[in-house]
Design goal:
This protein is of the alpha/beta class. Helix content is 34%, strand content 15%. The protein folds into two domains: 7-167 and 299-334, 3-Layer(aba) Sandwich (Rossmann fold), CATH 3.40.50.720; 185-282, 3-Layer(aba) Sandwich (Rossmann fold). It contains twelve helices and twelve strands. Strands 3-2-1-4-5-6-12 form a seven-stranded mixed beta sheet. It has a five-stranded parallel beta sheet with strand order 8-7-9-10-11. Helix 5 links the parallel strand 4 (105-107) and strand 5. The longest helix is centred in the last third of the chain and has 18 residues, at 302-319. It is globular, with a radius of gyration of 21 Å.
Length: 337
């Protein structure tokens, strides 16, 4: 781990969290060939979790703004060696269809995407593809997965029930919003927060903000907030493949609420249009289309580790004979509609 790692991200605690969640979920991937990503920080745990559950893991790595391949290898193998599973993990900087063809279980993690074209065609019928989010999110402006083609070819696909008690990632959403507002320079305490949200995040964001002293005004579209006094507009709208706020929306926001910032939690906001309309937007650097403006790892590794373990558990259930799946198994799946 880097010398400047936060105490909550030190390897001793990461190892404790990984072993705890694997035990709690009864994660068992004995003999399964897993294709996933190797990354830095909290996301270094995914191949290690799979290996700890007994899998043989191919983990794709690449340089990114979060760290070099050397950083990724150091983070992955230091944790894997501590848990005695380093020999089960192979890192590759080559993204080859052969890796997809060889895998029994694939996670749609960052370096594994996009799963389209020759990469999607390489996946064997009967193999499992675990979505590392709830299934309704796959329709949220994402174009990095040939979903219909994969399902037609017999690839087993399901989302992760992030609200399962043993995963429980949604309960971190409110804290993520509080920290995200603080990073933007707006404390939740005593703030009047206009919350634009049209999806299941809403109740978690409301309760998290309110418990930290905010007055929350929830709405599904901006017009519902037009006559309200607000200190900040938190946008948590399901992405659509384009900006969730039009130029007219942004001009209206500036005219009705001069100086009030937009904080993008989820749902793309066009920075150029916002700047021309005179509306400040946080974060300054936009996230990738369809992605969140703040990651769970902003709070530390806990939520990320829970989510990655939950996704691998989905893969375990998908690879289980449907007749042998228990009702408890099925609770981890968020089935595609």
């Amino acid at each position: 781990m880097p010398l400047d790692a936060r105490p909550g991200e030190l390897i001793e605690r990461m190892a404790m969290l990984v072993t705890g969640v694997a035990s709690r979920l009864g994660l068992d991937l004995s003999g399964v060939r897993v294709l996933t990503e190797a990354a830095t920080g909290a996301y270094s745990v995914t191949p290690v979790l799979a290996a700890l559950a007994g899998a043989n893991v191919m983990a794709l790595a690449k340089d990114s703004r979060f760290g070099s391949v050397a950083d990724v290898a150091a983070a992955t193998y230091s944790l894997a060696e501590r848990l005695g599973v380093a020999s089960q993990i192979t890192l590759s900087t080559e993204r080859s269809p052969a890796h997809y063809a060889d895998a029994d279980l694939i996670t749609n993690s960052g370096h594994v995407r996009p799963i389209v074209g020759e990469f999607a065609e390489a996946i064997r019928p009967g193999a499992a593809l675990a979505l590392m989010f709830e299934s309704w999110e796959i329709q949220a402006g994402r174009e990095d997965l040939s979903l219909d083609r994969l399902r037609a070819r017999g690839v087993r696909i399901a989302g992760t029930n992030e609200r399962h008690p043993n995963v429980d990632v949604f309960s971190y959403l409110g804290l993520m919003a509080v920290v995200h507002l603080a990073d933007a320079g707006v404390p939740a305490y005593r703030a009047i927060v206009g919350l634009l949200c049209d999806n299941p995040f809403r109740s978690y964001l409301e309760s998290g903000l309110a418990s930290n002293g905010a007055t929350v005004l929830p709405a599904s579209e901006f017009e519902e907030l037009a006559g309200e006094e607000i200190d900040v507009l938190l946008v948590a709208l399901k992405p659509t493949g384009r900006s969730v706020l039009s130029r007219d929306d942004l001009v209206r926001i500036r005219n009705l609420h001069p100086g009030v910032p937009i904080v993008q939690f989820w749902g793309d906001v066009d920075r150029d249009v916002a700047t021309s309309a005179g509306v400040p937007v946080w974060p300054i650097r936009p996230p990738s289309p369809g992605h969140m403006g703040v990651l769970p790892s902003r709070l530390g590794p806990d939520a990320t580790i829970r989510l990655q373990a939950g996704g691998l558990k989905v893969g375990q259930v998908l690879l289980t004979d449907p007749l042998a799946r228990t009702s408890e198994d099925l609770e981890y799946l968020d089935e595609l509609r």
